[in-house]
Amino acid sequence: MKSYIKRNRDWWNAATSIHVKSKLYNLASFKKGKTSLQKIEISELKNVKGKTLLHLMCHFGLDSISWARIGAKVTGVDFSANAINTARKISEENNIAASFICSDIYNLPKVLHKKYDIIFMSYGVLLWLPNLKKWAGVINKFLKKGGTFYIVELHPFTNILSYDFKIFYDYFDRGPYADDSSGTYTNWNSKIKGVTHQWDYTISDVINVLIEEKLKIEFVHEFPFTMYEQFPGLMKKNKNGQYVFKNKNIQIPLLFSLKAKK
Ligand SMILES: C[S@@+](CC[C@H](N)C(=O)[O-])C[C@H]1O[C@@H](n2cnc3c(N)ncnc32)[C@H](O)[C@@H]1O
């Protein structure tokens, strides 16, 4: 398991340098005050003001700092040192207080000894986790009684589809998969090399591990749009800046969100 995580971390350290300069993350407009958060999480999570918020797998912190900008007391966690150093720099340069911890989320119980009002995770996180049951245990450990866990994530249904929209993969195969393709989701032509390891989960896997931790699921929502060009050439941006299929007849779940209480 260790070498999987190490290879993934090396890849994320390299990807961070590309993502910081990317159009998708648009650091320049973030610096001018635009939130990096999407409408879904802003409207579904609500009332973060004054709350302690633990953002797991926060990448280089734009979403963490965006929550801090609207009043949350934020701690971001990521295992990429490059991502965490960049997040600290952006927080300082923009004068928005947020703290950041460089840690594998499975190792977090050894380095963090606080509980939070809210735990937030978003877009492209679960596929990097080798053990979903252990993940749910981490959520439970760091959530205060009465606290809220919220995730908005790529819908696992799309795992059966290839980039050119063919039914190609087995929905029930949990992996791991080794991926040696080049490019990253901010630019499929970017020069980034290396092997990553990923895992898949069904939607019921995600729900059931949280139920096993005795979290009370408040809702699960599914959405026919996403926030990056998941199927290159087949998608366009709608007026809300979300990616939808050019072919209006294709209506499949691309994202899901889930809110649970402890
Ligand atoms: C797709 S990004 C998250 C995207 C985030 N919503 C954003 O848009 O900034 C996934 C992040 O998970 C981190 N990551 C992957 N595996 C991890 C692990 N085991 N522990 C902590 N962070 C991890 C990566 O370094 C990366 O920053």
Summary tags:
single chain; alpha/beta; 262 residues; 7-stranded mixed sheet; globular; binds S-adenosylmethionine; two-stranded antiparallel sheet; Rossmann fold
What does this entry look like structurally?
- By secondary structure, the protein is an alpha/beta fold.
- The chain has one domain: Rossmann fold (3-Layer(aba) Sandwich).
- The protein has eight helices and eleven strands.
- The strands form three sheets. A seven-stranded mixed sheet has the order 3-2-1-4-5-11-8, with helices on both faces.
- Helix 4 (62-69) links the parallel strand 1 and strand 2.
- Helix 7 (132-142) crosses helix 8.
- The longest helix has 19 residues, at 2-20.
- It is globular, with a radius of gyration of 18 Å.
- The mean pLDDT is 95.
- S-adenosylmethionine binds at residues 5, 8, 12, 57, 59, 62-63, 78-80, 83, 104-105, 122-125, 128.
